[in-house]
Design goal:
Length: 91
Amino acid sequence: MRKNGNSGNGKNKKNGKNKKNSLPQISPQQIAVIVGLLTNALEVESVLIDRDQKIQILLEGSLRKKTKADKVAEVLDDISVSDLIEAYILR
């Protein structure tokens, strides 16, 4: 063994690090999912875990941008048609 604590085989016993730091490889599909989640284009619909600890995540979304009509329809989703007609007539 040498004086510097190195056995001469290229591995430093002091820090135990002989691997280079490398970034994980991310596929284009994984990037698309990440971007979709971060931009709220995708939402998690359900998460399933089975006995073998396998996990399934169902994502749902649309590439189409919401129009004003879509936004109004979301707001009026809980209102019945009869209430909507009555409100329109009384207006």
